[in-house]
Amino acid sequence: MTDRHAQGMAVRRSVLGDDHVDRAEAKRTEFDSAFQDLITESAWGTVWASDAISRRERSMLTIALLAATGNFEEIAMHVRATARTGASPQDIAEALQHVAIYAGVPRANHALKIARETFAEMKEQP
Asked: Where is the Carboxymuconolactone decarboxylase-like domain (predicted)?
């Protein structure tokens, strides 16, 4: 394990939570192992580990970019992460307004639906 991998895993756990990361690691196979290392080192150990902007800002950017590119599968995961990054529901709503203007209303609308449902689920959980 490289230092970047260890740092990435620590950041990943800090942002997504131990339960999420433990579930993801339990599903890891030989087939996707290299890919998992790549995202742990690159996304988490390089991009998310940088202190150039806050984790709150990274959450807002990540959710906006996922919505803008139509990659809706990971939006709920990143909305749940806002409990750890400090991005508020209002922050996410503001970011998705930018998506509506610059990437399209349908994508922003779908992302808002996912975010709204995820925030509601988060309120129901202890």
From this structure: 34-117
